[in-house]
Design goal:
The complex is a heterodimer of chains A (152) and B (144). Chain A has 152 residues and is an all-alpha fold. Chain A has one domain. Chain A is built from six helices and no strands. Chain B has one domain. Chain B is 71% helix and 0% strand. In chain B, α2 crosses α3. Chain B is globular. Classes of the chains: A mainly alpha (152), B mainly alpha (144). The interface between A and B is large, with 128 and 120 residues.
Chain lengths: 152, 144
């Protein structure tokens, strides 16, 4: 049942990326090109997603726990550290070079564009490398109730 | 560069779908819909963190273009750069940055902002900023 929810959520998420235009790097790059061929569409994707999630999360977190799991798994860190700043800055450069962030890149895999087929393995390589070096993957995740913390 | 059309309605609908998916995942499974985090669960070093659930989500994600094409009868409009060195470097930077910074456009941008997480607000502001600067430099200074 939890698996089915994962699959359905993944499908809806991907469909949203495709319909919203985020799976098209040209559209993303035009969104990021404020002084050139600016296409503000992606602000609407963000606004729609955040509006629904903001209200939806408020309702969900009134429940003591998720319907199919023991507890809500939320990031518990709340400090803006060097790692967050540096990581976000590096990510933004890669996003600006390609027009791809992780979700749209993975969603685009079956469309088999040459750029996607080299981008995704490189991204996975970067993820594995960073996980191995920082050992982030082995750090135990503390489970905390809803509220406080960061996202992942 | 490729001109794209302003699509406020389709983009809002897309955003709402992303929001619904994000809320469903929290309601049922208690999980953040952060794609870099979910992909990370599929990669070594492994820990006991619902690898199969992450795989199911990713499979659903990759089924979306087919679902879109079956439902609408149109193929997914996409222009991806075919510049291999550029895409390799960009992929590496996205992989390293999202893992080191603990999130991407979905985890920090959608889930984190919705939870009013200070870390995510900062992360989102920073990656938007460096992305804007990168596009400005490549398009208007280097003239890509």
């Amino acid at each position: 049942m939890g698996l089915l929810v994962n699959a359905i959520a993944g499908f809806l998420f991907g469909l949203g990326l495709v319909i919203g235009g985020m799976a098209n790097p040209a559209k993303v790059l035009n969104f990021l090109d404020l002084t050139g061929s600016w296409d503000p569409s992606l602000a609407f994707v963000m606004a729609g997603a955040v509006a629904v999630t903001f209200i939806g999360y408020k309702l969900v977190f009134r429940q003591p726990r998720p319907l199919l799991a023991a507890r809500f798994q939320l990031p518990e860190m709340n400090q803006i550290d060097r790692r967050l700043v540096l990581g976000a800055a590096i990510f933004g450069v890669g996003w600006g070079l390609s027009g791809f962030c992780p979700g749209p890149a993975i969603t685009s895999l079956p469309l088999l564009a040459k750029g996607t087929l080299v981008f995704v393995p490189a991204m996975l390589g970067g993820m594995i490398l960073t996980r191995l070096i920082t050992n982030r993957g082995l750090q135990a995740k503390t489970l905390v109730p809803a509220r406080a913390g960061e996202a992942q | 560069m490729t001109a794209t059309q302003f699509t406020p309605l389709a983009s809002t609908i897309g955003g709402v779908l992303i929001g619904i998916a994000t809320v469903l995942l929290m309601l049922f499974n208690g999980r953040i819909a952060g794609i870099s985090g979910i992909v990370g669960r599929l990669l070594p070093p492994y820990r006991n963190n619902d690898v199969i659930g992450a795989a199911a989500f990713i499979l659903g994600l990759m089924t979306a273009p087919l679902g879109y094409t079956l439902a609408t009868g149109t193929s997914v409009l996409q222009t991806v750069s075919g510049n291999v060195p550029l895409m390799v470097i960009a992929g590496l930077l996205v992989g390293i940055g999202t893992t080191y910074g603990g999130g991407c456009t979905s985890g920090h941008g959608v889930c984190g902002l919705s939870r009013l997480s200070l870390r995510s607000v900062a992360a989102t502001a920073i990656f938007m900023m460096t992305a804007f600067v990168t596009v400005f430099v490549t398009r208007h200074i280097l003239g890509g």
